[in-house]
Amino acid sequence: xxxxxxxxxxxxxxxxxxxxxxxxxxxxxxxxxxxxxxxxxxxxxxxxxxxxxxxxxxxxxxxxxxxxxxxxxxxxxxxxxxxxxxxxxxxxxxxxxxxxxxxxxxxxxxxxxxxxxxxxxxxxxxxxxxxxxxxxxxxxxxxxxxxxxxxxxxxxxxxxxxxxxxxxxxxxxxx
Amino acid sequence: xxxxxxxxxxxxxxxxxxxxxxxxxxxxxxxxxxxxxxxxxxxxxxxxxxxxxxxxxxxxxxxxxxxxxxxxxxxxxxxxxxxxxxxxxxxxxxxxxxxxxxxxxxxxxxxxxxxxxxxxxxxxxxxxxxxxxxxxxxxxxxxxxxxxxxxxxxxxxxxxxxxxxxxxxxxxxxxxxxxxxxxxxxxxxxxxxxxxxxxxxxxxxxxxxxxxxxxxxxxxxxxxxxxxxxxxxxxxxxxxxxxxxxxxxxxxxxxxxxxxxxxxxxxxxxxxxxxxxxxxxxxxxxxxxxxxxxxxxxxxxxxxxxxxxxxxxxxxxxxxxxxxxxxxxxxxxxxxxxxxxxxxxxxxxxxxxxxxxxxxxxxxxxxxxxxxxxxxxxxxxxxxxxxxxxxxxxxxxxxxxxxxxxxxxxxxxxxxxxxxxxxxxxxxxxxxxxxxxxxxxxxxxxxxxxxxxxxxxxxxxxxxxxxxxxxxxxxxxxxxxxxxxxxxxxxxxxxxxxxxxxxxxxxxxxxxxxxxxxxxxxxxxxxxxxxxxxxxxxxxxxxxxxxxxxxxx
Lengths: 175, 553
Prior knowledge:
The complex is a heterodimer of chains A (about 180) and B (about 550).
Chain A: E1 11-20, H1 25-35, E2 42-47, E3 53-62, H2 64-76, E4 80-85, E5 91-102, H3 108-117, E6 121-125, E7 129-136, H4 138-148, E8 153-158, E9 162-165
Antiparallel strand pairs in A: 1-3, 1-4, 2-3, 5-7, 5-8, 5-9, 6-7
Chain B: H1 2-6, E1 11-14, H2 21-27, E2 33-36, H3 40-54, E3 58-62, H4 66-69, H5 72-80, E4 85-91, H6 107-111, E5 117-120, H7 124-139, E6 145-151, H8 152-156, H9 181-193, E7 197-201, H10 203-207, H11 211-221, E8 225-227, E9 242-245, H12 252-260, E10 263-267, H13 273-276, E11 287-292, E12 306-309, H14 312-323, H15 329-334, H16 336-348, H17 361-371, E13 377-380, H18 384-392, E14 401-402, H19 413-423, E15 429-434, H20 444-450, E16 456-461, H21 466-475, H22 491-497, E17 501-505, H23 511-520, E18 525-530
Parallel strand pairs in B: 1-2, 1-3, 3-4, 4-6, 5-6, 7-8, 7-10, 8-9, 10-11, 11-12, 13-14, 13-15, 15-16, 16-18, 17-18
Helix pairs in contact in B: 3-5, 3-19, 9-14, 11-14, 12-16, 17-18, 17-23
């Protein structure tokens, strides 16, 4: 009960955090996680539909007790407007990745076939590489990486998960 | 400046420097009293104790760079003890920020994890509103320190002064004040049903100003009360229902009662590790009702049967109001075996020491208690001095005991005494110190003398860093590694060098005379008591053990 170490019973939680778009707000949130020994698996930040507000999506491994403490600590931050645990409600979660994969002559056709099956896009082509854009849930991206790995992946850039609840979500006041 | 006056600021503790000269120039034109400290850490501890003993927000003003970094320990202490202070730091002009300019430091970044909130003011026009918001945040909800960083061009610049509204409404900050009424009636039922109830009170009761309400509730229902270190004085220490302090150096009866209780009403506490010991065994038999204004405190460390988020005063007032319509006599009657049991524990293992040829530190504190009729404001340093003060001076009123509880800052006591004296010129203010701690902020003696703030310092001088030495004695085979202070200054001469008065006692029969002379002095005084060198603080619960596993001698 006492320590904030994610144990075997913990699972990945997706937190959607609406914040005031003020200087240092990201550092307040990141600092809260590092200072209190919470983990961040992925982090995605961008402006929201409301000017002056940003939405931060954090994926964190936590059990029931820990996630309650994380949510309360986040709500305690002065610049945080709302915290929603999207693991508890119906939600959509997507991630985008750019994958630079080696494209030797004998692999090119295979790569394009995979791109077609996974409904991704080739966004850059050079003599030895394809850069592929893929969007989907984490499972899809992992599966794609698995297929490309034998051909040689040079670099990957992933956005981390962005998520929204499926029902109309209230944005006024603190949850 | 107008904003500071509008917030009712009367006293500022500070230290000038390059980027705050203009602010000081304006400050001089007001009737705000400025206390010039000798080190910025002292300024923050003074503001902290000033806030605790006056009920107002404490204010500091320091320069950029080293001035700002020197405040960090004080801010962190105020944060852990939930004390309302506002710290103004100077900053290099906005166009130089990030340039590694002279005396530049990112103090907003540094203090982010140890302030309730902080601001870097970007334009003079924002200043008035930010100051209003800073004071509001510092004193409302769970109080805490707020830092406002003022770049030189912002503080030099001019803007049309428009007084911001008194009532602040913030979209993202709205602490829960009123407790849930259903929870209150459930609490009353539980309190009346319980056979072995106890109240566990902390600093939250004091900062909410709820001590009287707590005392009323406990006395009406005849429920024994234990407090944390921060909660001392929230319930009269001399009352027969007082169990004394709980935890690592808590009393035998408080720790035993905690283990046996079937219901614990915990008010304004956060179940710190120094209180709970081995947390899995803490209050194992008890249903815990936890009242706190900060939801993060609830269920952080211990399982809670009934959580109540709300202001401690509102909650206790609500409980007392509900009690009026209830029959309580039979319930009180049914609990007499429990009170008898507590009385037995009390008689079995009292706090005790034996005064022989060498002065015992406990004796000094007990005599101080007697000679001040228990009415002094006591500040402490950290270590054995702090624990003996907590055990042997019985605090009957809130805000009478001022100590760095959460962070445990050695060097807190002297500046804290000065801050308390600034707020309470008519009260006797005594810092109970050790010979190690007092040297950490001894320079503030000059502040006390210059500003005519006649605080009394009682040094329990054992020539050791006594608390660490005690651990080394008990758990490290008496290897007193680096805890022996073989060289120390002559504290009597040191006091005189500062223009204060120095007194010394080396024999038990001199203790009263020195205390009486020191208390009668009109100047700041250092009283140096040469005490039994290897005296230990008992009871003691070894770290990581259950609080019933006390070492008693």
